[in-house]
Structure prediction request, 350 residues.
Amino acid sequence: MAKQHKAVALISGGLDSLLAVRVLQEQGIEVEGINFYTGFCVEGHTHAIRNHDKDKKKRNNALWAAEQLGIKLHIVDVIEEYKDVLLNPKHGYGANMNPCLDCKIFMVSKAVEWVKENHENGFDFIITGEVIGQRPMSQRKETMPIVANESGAEDILLRPLCAKNLPATKPELEGWVDREKLFDFSGRNRKPQMALAKKYGFTDYASPAGGCCFLTDKNYSDKLVDLWKGRGTREYEMDDIMLLKVGRHLRPKPEYKLIIARDAGESKFLEGYRKQFTNIQALSHNGPLTLVDGNMPDEEIEIAAGIVARYGQGRDAAQVEIQVSIPGSEPKKIQIKPLSMDEVLEEWHV
Ligand code: SF4
Prediction:
């Protein structure tokens, strides 16, 4: 009996990886999925936290895609290892802090490693949903061999959606996969993918717009760079990544910034950080919980409290009672006049 060939697919949760898997399933290949969690993934976070987005579906798209495809999904935490990719990308950054080409190489190399570690499961090759010309930095004709070579995957990396535009890989040469039934998609036009999705009956897939992570977002990238500048080091922890996704970030002085919740959902989320961070909240009026990240000098407390008062329901009051809690000390209560928007902007250094 002919050997059943197996592939592991990089699953981001987007349409392309969904289609790439289904194309191979149609050829009788057994596929399992792998999803790498860098901490910057867009999946769910802000929708799950903000009241504002409560009508949006809260789902993990990678899990959803795996469920649609009927495949096993392995979610691998790469938060620590990913730091080097983000901090020292050999191929540089995209429009924002997104090191897409290095990221792709890293993820495919992790898949190669994973296949070796799980050799008893007999995976023969790796697939991705990459399409030539789809992304300006990482998915170009010239970058396709770079990803294959620098990841160590070489000819066991197959891109079913654009394989016909690339040299044949081992699965095609060995006849495990019929090259004729693969595709030659290229460019940013999504119509061929949408038509294929329709053919396979996929309707509710994640929007193709945007990247797979927050690093492609200008706002997020600016906040990340500001954090590094403020701390004088580019080191970061998981909590930092999470907190950059939440709240309004204002930096009254280079040595500290305020993370002000934008709604009750975010205030609730920031509650979990009360023990780690100095925090400020209005007592006399409803208002957002605010964390202080960095070293706020004593003479700055009134300015910070005035800003926090400005973002609560006491913004037009003559005085607002504010509580400032420094972990390990007794909370301090102060009466403060809320700063006007102009004064807040004057203090805002981000
Ligand atoms: S968008 Fe983010 S996850 Fe996707 S390739 Fe670029 S850096 Fe990596």
Observations:
- The first strand starts at residue 6 and ends at 10.
- The mean pLDDT is 92.
- The first helix runs from residue 15 to 25.
- DSSP finds 13 helices and eleven strands in the chain.
